[in-house]
Specification:
Elements lengths: L5 E4 L9 H14 L6 H19 L3 H15 L6 H15 L9 H8 L4 E7 L2 H11 L7 E5 L4 H10 L7 E5 L2 H10 L3 E4 L20 E3 L13
Parallel strand pairs: 1-2, 1-4, 2-3, 4-5, 5-6
Helix pairs in contact: 1-4, 2-3, 3-4
């Protein structure tokens, strides 16, 4: 790992809990709409609308609220009440007020790497929300740069690496999503580590095993430190 200059961390479900809160909100939404469709049917419709809307709203809470409202209108054939719409908006606001819960070993890992490498955050989502979460997490002091990306495709990582003025082989990404945090980084010549989280959004799942000389998978984030022992 002697050539590594920058270590990048995903934020949601890598540094702190996120998907758990979205899953809880979806449960409340399905209960709200239970008179119209089965739980499975509601989840399927909401997911389809979420994915269709990514190109319009991007990732994050604001797009999720709009997708829930659109799903409610479609599922109810436009008969959903104003009160129900207000409830959905409230669900979204509650998401922005969830406590920031650091995952085990995160701060220990950042403390060990800070000052030895340039640490950055590379995450998707709503800019305002991600900055709020990072500020409230108390982790901001460890990071040289925070990048809230509209997506995590190869081109997005290439652009980030150019801004950091490094080569792809000097970039090391840590995250919970094989699809977003690992595959595109490996494809451009970087290094990537997968730290699985117990809940994964369906859109982030892949159906094949990752095998690459620049790839590792660990059960917990502190295991990454083994790679950087000198």
């Amino acid at each position: 790992m002697k050539n590594i200059k920058v270590i990048a961390f995903d934020a949601d479900d890598t540094l702190f809990i996120n998907e758990t809160y979205f899953a809880e909100t979806e449960e409340k939404f399905c209960s709200l709409m239970s008179d119209y469709l089965s739980h499975q049917g509601i989840s399927k419709e909401l997911f389809k609308i979420e994915i269709d809307n990514l190109k319009l709203y991007g990732y994050g809470i604001k797009g999720y609220i709009l997708s829930m409202i659109e799903a409610a209108m479609k599922i109810s054939n436009n008969t959903i009440s104003i009160e129900a719409i207000e409830r959905i908006i409230q669900y979204g606001k509650e998401l922005t007020e969830k406590p920031i819960v650091l995952l085990e070993g995160v701060e220990e890992t950042l403390q060990a790497l800070h000052g030895k490498y340039k640490l950055v955050v590379a995450t998707k989502g709503d800019l305002l929300d991600q900055r709020r979460k990072l500020h409230n997490s108390g982790l901001g002091k460890y990071f040289h740069h925070i990048e809230v990306m509209s997506d995590k495709q190869e081109i997005d990582y290439s652009d980030l690496i150019k801004r950091l003025e490094i080569q792809p082989e000097e970039f090391f990404m840590i995250g919970n999503s094989l699809k977003s945090d690992v595959l595109p980084v490996l494809a451009i010549g970087g290094h990537a580590v997968h730290i699985p989280f117990h809940t994964t959004w369906a859109h982030e799942k892949i159906d094949h095993k990752v095998e690459h000389e620049n790839f590792s998978s660990f059960e917990k984030i502190t295991d990454v430190l083994i790679r950087f022992k000198k």
